[in-house]
Amino acid sequence: MARAPQSPGGRARPGSAAGGTGAVAAKRVGAQSKRNPRVRYVVTRILLVSALVAAGIKLIEVQGFQAEALSERAERQRTTEVDIPAERGSIMDRNGVKLAFSMEVVTLAWRPQAMREQWDKEARTDPEAPDFNERTTEIADYLAEVLGEAIDRDEILGKLREDTTFVYLVDNVEPTKARKITDRFPEMDTEQRALREYPGGPLAAHIVGAANWRMDDKDVRKHNLRGLSGLESARDNELSGTPGRKLVDTAEGNSSVVIPGTERDLQPATPGSDMELTIDSDLQYTLQDQLTSYAEKARARSASAVVMDAKTGEVYALANDKTFDPNNLETTNTDNMNNVAVTTPFEPGSVNKVITAAAALEHDITTPEDVHQVPGSMRIADHVVSDAWSHGTLPMTTTGIFAKSSNIGTLQLAQQVGEQRFADLLDKFGLGERTGIGLPAESPGSVPAQSQWSGTTFGNLPIGQGLSMTVLQMAGMYQAIANDGVRVPPRIVKSTIGPGGDREETPEPKGTRVVSPDTAKTVRDMLRAVVQDEPTPNNGTAPAASVEGYQISGKTGTAQQVDPATGAYSSDKYWITFTGILPADDPRFVVAIMLDQPETTLPEGSSAAPLFHDIASYMAQRYQIPLSKKPSPTVPLVQQ
Buried-most residue among 140, 403, 559, 620 (CB within 10 A)? Predict the structure, then answer.
């Protein structure tokens, strides 16, 4: 067969027989296909196969070489499942007065980089369209018009123009105002939130606590209203309810930015339970006010007080002189958030002598009228103990020992009681263990184990040194005496009300028999002499605690504080305490007070009895407590 002429490189020359034959063949096939359907069918199949081959090649390219780029592009806009915050339950006092509740608010947010890109692009294509700066100026002006003094217009403008993907503009916007803003500027992002409101501000703040938004820095969509202190923290699970779930589309360039209008609910949220407390907000307010004022006059470092129901152990009020406003946590001194009445133990001093009194009567060691020869001092191991006032040997009645707060007389009785029986009663009074009231960071106080007692330990404990307790525990001791010898652990949550309205009462704690009813009544009767106002030597230590028309039982206390520099007891730093029962003949309330390092040269700094008088007088009127049927009898404290 003849070959076509070739070029020196072996290629067919242009216009040669080989090149011409291909072109002619193609023309022939094209011409034949017009006349022959079968040819057209074959051509079509060839074209389809070619298209599929091309698509396959493209698919390999996409999957093998462009997968990472496309994945990143798809990530810019995706569907995400997020929480629907549940409505947080309210907290109320015993009369239904709301101390904490939630209200719906809106947070306005913005995507500066995305909006700058969009609006600057529009301005380039349309010379009459406003650019990014012009539009953000308009938005800032409108927000200032709608929200007024709640915002700083220049600060908002700065946020609108930040070089970032996402920024929060304004928190806690009323829903109606937020809708007005988004109607005009639909580009604005919004987040529905619940604002926690505390109508009373500092009222009962240490009890109720505070809740606020906590945010996960890695994902701003994961935010929830959570308790930070007080019952808001301790009972957070009950108050917070169960979040719901919804699907949202997130914006290009920031997976944490939700595209408005793309929310689809999956599961509704279940609201939290409401909580009814045992406290009375009116009494709580009065106690806080009177305690703060008295502490200022006494120049005390701090002060705390508790009012407890004598029968049930329900806490009607619990206060510290330094408090905080949970509505303004940003400006709060965190030290003031410490609930000293529950978290901070102290040495009670002579208030603790009620244990020796109860033990001596319970074990038939003495009677109120018995007379004891009480010297001015006595040696305990290598330590000499004295009374607060100088005296020789006095013929004091048992009642007089406690009414005049004689350390020596108390230790004489304690030695007859014995260490074991005294230690047993410390345990029954609940000292050295938490009360279980349910408030955060409660301290158990401190009582040395009997196995660790030294020779001087039993010279300290009966007079209230060498052990520690909280104000709440101190009130609990006297609650047992007021309740005919049965100690009932304190409560502060009265009931919870579920989302459906079902009320669940907090079970009354099981009481502990501390002493017999007769012993408890006798102790109450003896301690009436503490407020006895008679000429010396038959005057008690706290006549200022008396309330006209009522029998009052109580006990004063003055405890030396340990000087951290020397490790020994200080001669000028004290805890001043008082605990009283109103009224003594038919107990209704117990009031416990502690002043930390008051100026003892001042009248208010030397005794908490006047403060008890003010608190008890208010309670007698508020709760219309019946007058005592007869005044307290005058009894001899020192035999003449």
Answer: 403
